[in-house]
Amino acid sequence: MVRLTSKDIGRLVGVSQATVSNAINRPHLVAPATLAAIERVMADHGYSVNSSARALKSGIGKALGVVVLDVANPFWGEVVKGIETVTAPGRIPLIIGSSNEDAETESAIFQSFESQGVRGILVAPTPSNLPLLRRFRAKGIQVVLLDSEDPQGEFPSISLDHAAGAELAAAYLRDGGHREVALVNGSPEISWCASRSRGFHAGFAGVADARIHEISRTAMTVEEGRQSVDVLLALLKQQPPITALFCTNDMLALGVLKGLHERGISVPGDLSVVGYDDAVFAELLSPGLTTVHQNATAIGRAAALLMTLDADGPQLPEPLQPPHLVVRGSARSLR
User: Fold this and answer.
1) Which CATH class is domain 162-294?
2) Can you point out the beta strands (E) in 176-306?
3) Sign of CA dihedral 174, 177, 179, 185
4) Among the four residues 7, 31, 101, 114, which has the most C-beta atoms within 10 Å?
5) Rounded mean pLDDT of 294-314?
6) Shortest CA distance to 309 belongs to which of 119, 45, 29, 24?
7) Rounded distance, CA 245 to CA 275, Å?
8) Which letter does DSSP use for residue 45 in this model?
9) Angle at 332 between CA 331 and CA 334, to 5 degrees
10) pLDDT value at 236 more than 80
């Protein structure tokens, strides 16, 4: 049996969805005859109000928990802003935590969310905590993955094609004549780190004289990017030297740019730098950072729409635009 939505009820009665919503939530605002007609159609079709979903949408009751990888990264601030475009009108409280890419910290945040009785969790998870998310789901706590791929299809997830975005960066450098390149990345246990690495390698597939030097960092932060510069300096001294590098997020790229500037290395004169995310600071740098753009606000909004999906019937998120490369001054062609 197909479950009717409030929109369907309104169509059958001949009233708007807003009137049906008032009949359910604020019956004193609806004319008695109209209210009786709505209740009759609801009864005839076995329509029952999803009280937990209604509480989620109206803000009466439990909040949503949001776990981001790094609260200092402007990308995640934009994601939260997107979530708020859905939650703020309904006065749905948000409780926000930052895992700092640490599984134990993330687990502690989850436990705190559970003790506070959150209705749902939006999270960019570490793989080791997926069993904990399964347990929450079994308890009726909704889970949506943020900017993360879910190969097993266990949880609703919102993510762009990270591999395709990284391949755009690789193609730009490849077509510009770069052959000795570095890849500064975070932990391969983070799904999009692995995907961006895979996409970057794919962009150089078939280029016989290309070499990709991988530099793995423990976190995707400015300081980790800055600390990678010692390795980059060694690669600049090798023969042939590297001429470009790709950082798998803009925070790493910002740290690299800072470290290179401190060592007197010119960008893009001595080394081209490409990032990923198109953080708000990318265009403010000098030179501006060439980077892969993904719409963080749209990602957050889409994830929140999935979380409130059954409040008034299906609310499928708008299609997300694919990532694209924004060319600024930090990378140059060798041709």
Assistant:
1) alpha beta
2) 180-185, 211-216, 244-247, 272-277, 290-293
3) negative
4) 101
5) 77
6) 119
7) 9
8) T
9) 140
10) yes
Q: Do 56-159+297-307 and 162-294 show the same overall fold? A: yes
Distance between CA atoms of 287 and 273, rounded to whole angstroms?
Answer: 10
Please tell me the number of Cα atoms within 13 Å of 78 on its side-chain side.
Answer: 16
pTM of the model: 0.79
> CB under 8 Å to 269, separation ≥6 — which residues?
332
CA angle 235, 236, 237 (to 5 degrees): 90
Question: Whole-angstrom Cα distance, residue 230 to residue 221?
Answer: 16
Domain residues of the chain, as ranges? 6-49, 56-159+297-307, 162-294
Helices (H) and strands (E) in the chain, counts: 13, 11
Q: Read off the pLDDT of residues 112-133 as tens digits, 9 standing for 90 and up.
A: 998 888 989 999 887 788 888 9
Task: Give pLDDT tens digits for 44-88.
Answer: 887 765 544 554 554 334 789 999 999 999 999 999 999 999 888
Assigned CATH topology for domain 56-159+297-307:
Rossmann fold (3.40.50)
Whether 3 has a pLDDT exceeding 80, the answer reads no
